[in-house]
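Could you show me just one protein sequence together with its fold in token form as a worked example?
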Amino acid sequence: MSRQTNLAAQTAFAQAVMEGDLDALDKVVAPGSIDHDPAPNQGAGPEGYKAMFTELRTAFPDLKVEVEHLLATDDELAFAYTISGTHRGQLMGHPPTGKRVSYRGMQISRFDGDGMLVERWGSSDELGMLRQLGLAAVAAPQP
């Protein structure tokens, strides 16, 4: 697969998430896609991503994902990104705080010969996000 095809697939993935058109993920995520670092209770394949991003978009209706650094090979993409949004819906059982968050993450995505996402490795600063919302304590400095 070409770098351009993979970039187009990743762009379509991000656009689907930001616009809330999560059914479009069926076009870029393989049915048996594996997320090596899934969100809690995230299922496999496109349905797992749809459920996870539905919850995130419910909590942050103005969700924005901005890619800041991107490297591409013929079958993989690696990128750093920032997620931002305003907490206006329930998140992990917590009511909306109205607070704005911004937190970073990194991801590696592997694509098959048809440009479908088949594997993902990644991490984002969920603890930092929860701290910004006042939902996680900040540790006291150690002497």
